[in-house]
Amino acid sequence: YYNILLYSLVPLMLVAGIVICAFWVYRHHKMAYPPVLVPTQDPGPPPPSPLLGLKPLQLLEVKARGRFGCVWKAQLLNEYVAVKIFPIQDKQSWQNEYEVYSLPGMKHENILQFIGAEKRGTSVDVDLWLITAFHEKGSLSDFLKANVVSWNELCHIAETMARGLAYLHEDIPGLKDGHKPAISHRDIKSKNVLLKNNLTACIADFGLALKFEAGKSAGDTHGQVGTRRYMAPEVLEGAINFQRDAFLRIDMYAMGLVLWELASRCTAADGPVDEYMLPFEEEIGQHPSLEDMQEVVVHKKKRPVLRDYWQKHAGMAMLCETIEECWDHDAEARLSAGCVGERITQMQRLTNIITTEDIVTVVTMVTNVDFPPKESSL
């Protein structure tokens, strides 16, 4: 009888022992790894950025759509602002633009004023917002579609655009808020130049910009970025020297094309003003492929047409020479942005003293003028 009882209890004790051990292991594991709490409801949007605090921001209307999202006109308290909204898949562009605007020394009359950046929406459906000053006139491209410009207006737009790009390109140590590195824009085009009410230009859209800091990598230096129509020959060829000055000269090629857009809508010369067209639109239409651009710009070495009658206006003739030196096939021969700004100041000053009485003197002045040196800031 006792043997039967013993044989019956042993398995029960073993089972009990296994259960106790399993419970101890479970308790130990539970203490080491506390449970993750899953929220039962949407946690709501993240708090607003400290730059905006709790100020209400109301979206009013879409003003533009681009590669990295859309731009809204919005109201922040009693002023209008621009809100650029990026989808989450374009986070890198939003992050890059935010970082560039946050660098020391980025407050400048000819660089779009930055106000703040935010993430809006739920964890599943997030939009990335970039808030800047709003300019009713919009981009230079939009303005030129609807308006022609006088010689003085052209000079003001071109000079302030050049000043903005020259400042962007400049390395400036010892500022109150730190060291401003040299920055290449990498997507200069008339869509990315905005106009204030007095036609002062400011450079916008730093989603592709590169900063150059001593001893640090410039980051993702993939060469073939930007808008195809404005790509320099060396970019189209994929033959870029990944040094700072090479990237700055790529910006200068594109600036030459923007100056051509301005010239094409100027009333200064004695001749018809062209309908607004993008660079190379006459040659290859509105949607060129990379191969189209390579054929025209690299192999045929073509550039947009500089009209013969532009040369008959003293200032326009000087502008044409400046444009040609910006879009030179040889990158090292291109002008710097600082030099372009100086030249435009000089050509406006010279043409302002011209009168019909001293037309002969004018020709002498223009042919004998000493331009500022090409490489004033590179």
Mind explaining what this structure looks like?
The protein is α+β, with helices and mostly antiparallel strands. The protein has 2 domains: 57-133, Phosphorylase Kinase, domain 1, CATH 3.30.200.20; 140-368, Transferase(Phosphotransferase), domain 1. The protein is built from 11 helices and 11 strands. The model is unreliable at 28-51 (pLDDT under 50).
Give, in order, the helices and strands.
HEEEHEEHHEEEEEEHHHHHHH
Fourth-level CATH superfamily of the largest domain? Transferase(Phosphotransferase) domain 1
Rg from alpha-carbon coordinates: 30 Å
- Name the overall outline: elongated
Instruction: State the share of residues found in helices, binned by percent.
Output: 25-40%
Distance between the termini: 105 Å
Catalytic activity: L-seryl-[receptor-protein] + ATP = O-phospho-L-seryl-[receptor-protein] + ADP + H(+); L-threonyl-[receptor-protein] + ATP = O-phospho-L-threonyl-[receptor-protein] + ADP + H(+)
Enzyme class: transferase
Cofactor: Mg(2+); Mn(2+)
Transmembrane segments: 6-26
Short description:
The protein is of the alpha+beta class.
Give structural attributes.
Transferase(Phosphotransferase), domain 1, 11 strands, alpha+beta, 11 helices, elongated, metal-binding, EC 2.7.11.30, five-stranded antiparallel β-sheet, 378 residues, Phosphorylase Kinase, domain 1, disulfide bond
